[in-house]
Amino acid sequence: MTATVLDPSPVAASFRDEVREDVERLRAEGRTLRVVGLLGQDDGPAATYARFARRGFDDVGIEFDLRHVTPDEAEAAVAAANVDADVDGIFLYYPLAGRDDRWLRELVDPRKDIEGMHSFWSRLLYENERFVDSGRTLRAILPCTPLAILKLLNRAGMRGTSGNAPLEGVTACVINRSEVVGRPLAAMLANDGARVHSLDISGAVTYEPAIGRHTHEVRSSGIDRAAALADADVVISAVPSRDFELIRGDEIRAGAICVDVAEFTNFAESAKERAGVFVPRVGPLTVAMAARNLIRLAHITQK
């Protein structure tokens, strides 16, 4: 068996079509959307990501102002974009200020945080609060890369086995526990009913599904890589290292859905021969989710 390869580009195009309609509707109401991107490097992954973002925003009619900043200028640049009434969204391309990058995320006004990384949005995610208003009409912002992964998993056929929760009965393995990708993704999957084994270099924890309770629970499980992979219907790996031991076909279930998020591939060719669906990258859909988040923020700030 050879995996079906799921290209994220057509999936991203369908979401951009939706965003484009919303952008045109807002423009008809007299509102033009504008995003400021802050970039600290002229080349490398961050610069490549910024170029893809420009194409994605241009395609849907969102103005994109990319500003190059030094580490010493980054904090002031965020502050300036926060108070600029003509700026609707802010996108940070890391690394910007080294160890202070986490602090920079906290400086972004949550009402302009199209990445969904501010602690205001993280708190809602981890508490499984999906709306920002009491009338439950305005949806909370979710981090754009984990959201893109979730959309691709749904397109790949990830489904639960009962009606109690969308992903009840699904077991996932997420290799990466960063605040940008792995941890929020595990929480999103578990809040939808999946059991998630979360691995990184420090060990493993398991996210128990939010079934019969408001939100997921995290417990120390001590499960090792071999057991976690063998148990998983879905495998997502986002380890940004050439030294990562590639995930082999004999480690995963036949027919598993596999998603490769890292800059350097995390999967051996043999995994693609055993998986049911293989997603080779996520980037195009991440930009589409950021644009989608911008539309949601525009609705929130109109209220």
Strand-pairing-aware structural class: alpha/beta
Strand content: 15-25%
**Taking all residues together, what is the mean pLDDT?**
95
* Arrangement of strands in the largest sheet: 1-11-10-9-5-6-7-8
How many H/I helical runs? 10
The number of distinct β-strands equals 11
Low-pLDDT segments? none
| Helix content percent band | 25-40%
Rg calculated over all Cα atoms: 19 Å
Topology:
Elements: E1 4-5, H1 8-28, E2 34-39, H2 45-60, E3 63-68, H3 74-83, E4 89-93, H4 101-107, H5 119-126, H6 144-156, E5 171-175, H7 182-191, E6 195-200, E7 203-208, E8 217-220, H8 225-231, E9 234-237, E10 257-260, H9 269-274, E11 277-279, H10 283-302
Give an overview in words.
Helices cover 39% and strands 17% of the residues. The mean pLDDT is 95. Helix 2 (45-60) packs across helix 10 and helix 6 crosses helix 7. With 303 residues, it is an alpha/beta fold. The longest helix has 21 residues, at 8-28. The strands form 2 sheets. Strands 1-11-10-9-5-6-7-8 form an 8-stranded mixed sheet, sandwiched between helices.
